[in-house]
């Protein structure tokens, strides 16, 4: 007998197969029992008809509890009501382990309870759908970069300096010396492009942000991309192509997951074919002011502002040229007509309340300007000498960006909270299990 994964059942119509998995749900109507099985690859209904199976099989069926593990043999048939859906007409059941009463019944539990039991909650349909979409997004991004001629360049997780805001560092003791968990691999990627041209990394980064929001994790996964001889326009173009590729792949390959999540895909389908919106930071603030917001023209974008713009345009929006003062030290800058020092940068804001999913910029490539900024911000110069070498020996115009995977998963799946978008979330108020 062949063991078949649920997502491969379509090719076995009319055959007798074995499914190895767990009992997700059970429904009985007297002489028929409907078992909902899951095996990791999907969910399927298995029908046990009392009159068509042996007494042993019928009795085994009645003993099964939620999350018991089992092997089920049966004939693959078309689902009587749903198109392109299959069911199993059971002939035999082998119980592997009967589970005691499962703490997560298939009724509504509060989110705190579900996340206190995340190890078990992972088995439910919503986490299954969200984390499979996350997997697809990871693959799409990785494939995209390989096709575009990037090489994967893994940057260190233990770093002696900060890349972004120095107030958000996790410090640890490294053989008696202070060391930090990485906030982004960017600075190392900049050294990487001087050797390889175009590089990306993909790994966990850490932000000691005490924000208890639905958008912040302390440990998140970031993909940093860096490109030699790219200006900011080429940088944004790469980001747009990457997002389109990723969304297109999810729409094509994650149909069942999107259905489970009841995701309205209108905007996702639209953005694959339409150019993204570009707004200067100053323009965005003016639009917000005209629409009734009390704004600060020289400040970062606020949460409500990002959400509002996303809802207004219903497409991803590049907000360009932020005031340099609210951005990181490494960005290339210019002074505008009004005398405001601005960065050659853009944050990409996702629609549908996705907020900022990408931060990117052209990098300052002048040695003296960059050194001056490091000194102005009181960063320890000695620790940045290696980084300054990228500007000392054959400096080139270059750009890059970082995409936060969970922020992006949250947008694509429309998960309520970012903690749903990573297997085991680490936040200011949660670090277990
Ligand atoms: O905008 P950020 O801070 O940019 C950088 O770290 C650059 N060095 C990246 C680069 O140019 N290579 O972070 C990039 C993205 C954000 O847009 C957001 O999606 C995500 O990382 N992010 C977070 N996601 C969840 N929780 C947090 N606390 C996050 N902080 C940043
Ligand atoms: Mg940012």
What is the CATH class of the largest domain?
A: Alpha Beta
CATH architectural category of the largest domain: 2-Layer Sandwich
Ligand inventory reads:
4-amino-1,4-dioxobutan-2-aminium adenosine-5'-monophosphate, magnesium ion
Task: Enumerate how many helices there are, as a single number.
Answer: 13
Q: How many domains comprise the coordinates? A: 2
The proportion of residues forming helix, as a percent range, comes to: 25-40%
CATH topology of the largest domain: BirA Bifunctional Protein, domain 2
Distance between the termini: 39 Å
**Which outline best applies?**
elongated
Radius of gyration: 26 Å
Structural class per helix/strand content?
alpha+beta
How much β-strand is present in the residues?
25-35%
For the largest beta-sheet, the strand count, sense and barrel status come to: 8 strands, mixed
CATH homology group of the largest domain: Bira Bifunctional Protein, Domain 2
Strand order of the largest sheet: 7-11-12-19-18-17-14-13
Can you give the mean pLDDT?
Answer: 97
Record field, number of beta strands: 19
Ranges where pLDDT stays below 50 over 5 or more residues in a row are none
Domain Aminoacyl-transfer RNA synthetases class-II family profile: 131-423
Family: Belongs to the class-II aminoacyl-tRNA synthetase family.
Protein name: Asparagine--tRNA ligase
Organism: Candidatus Magasanikbacteria bacterium RIFCSPLOWO2_01_FULL_40_15
């Amino acid at each position: 007998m062949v063991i078949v994964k649920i997502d491969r059942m379509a090719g076995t119509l009319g055959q007798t197969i074995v499914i190895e998995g767990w009992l997700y749900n059970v429904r009985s109507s007297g002489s028929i029992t409907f078992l909902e099985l899951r095996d990791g690859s999907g969910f399927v209904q298995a029908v046990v008809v009392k009159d068509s199976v042996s007494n042993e099989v019928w009795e085994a069926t009645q003993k099964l509890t939620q999350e018991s593990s089992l092997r089920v043999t049966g004939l693959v048939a078309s689902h009587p009501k749903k198109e392109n859906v299959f069911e199993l007409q059971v002939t035999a059941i082998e119980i592997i382990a009967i589970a005691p009463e499962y703490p997560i019944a298939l009724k509504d539990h509060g989110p705190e309870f579900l996340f206190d039991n995340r190890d078990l909650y992972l088995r439910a349909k919503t986490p299954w759908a969200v984390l499979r979409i996350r997997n697809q997004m990871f693959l799409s991004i990785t494939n995209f970069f390989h096709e575009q001629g990037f090489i994967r360049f893994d940057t260190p997780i233990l770093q002696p300096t900060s890349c972004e805001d120095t107030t958000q560092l996790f410090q640890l003791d490294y053989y008696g010396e202070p060391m930090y968990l990485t906030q982004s691999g960017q600075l190392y990627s900049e050294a990487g492009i001087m050797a390889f041209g175009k590089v990306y990394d993909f790994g966990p980064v850490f932000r000691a942000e005490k924000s208890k929001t639905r958008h912040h994790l302390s440990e998140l996964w970031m993909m940093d991309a860096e490109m030699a001889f790219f200006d900011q326009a080429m940088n944004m173009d790469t980001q747009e192509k990457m997002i389109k590729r990723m969304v297109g792949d999810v729409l094509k390959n994650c149909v069942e997951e999107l259905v489970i999540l009841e995701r309205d895909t209108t905007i996702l389908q639209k953005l694959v074919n339409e150019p993204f919106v570009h707004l200067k930071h100053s323009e965005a603030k003016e639009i917000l002011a005209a629409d009734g917001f009390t704004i600060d023209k020289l400040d970062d974008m606020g949460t409500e502002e990002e959400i509002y713009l996303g809802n207004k345009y219903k497409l991803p929006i590049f907000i360009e040229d932020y005031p340099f003062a609210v951005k990181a030290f490494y960005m290339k800058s210019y002074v505008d007509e009004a005398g405001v020092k601005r960065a050659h940068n853009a944050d990409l804001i996702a629609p549908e309340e996705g907020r900022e999913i990408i931060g990117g910029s052209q990098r300052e490539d002048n040695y003296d300007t960059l050194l001056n900024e490091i000194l102005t911000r009181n960063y320890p110069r000695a620790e940045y000498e290696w980084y300054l070498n990228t500007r000392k020996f054959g400096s080139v115009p270059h750009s890059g960006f970082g995409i936060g995977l969970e922020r992006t998963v949250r947008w694509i799946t429309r998960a309520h909270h970012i903690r749903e978008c990573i297997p085991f979330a680490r936040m200011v108020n949660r670090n277990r299990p």
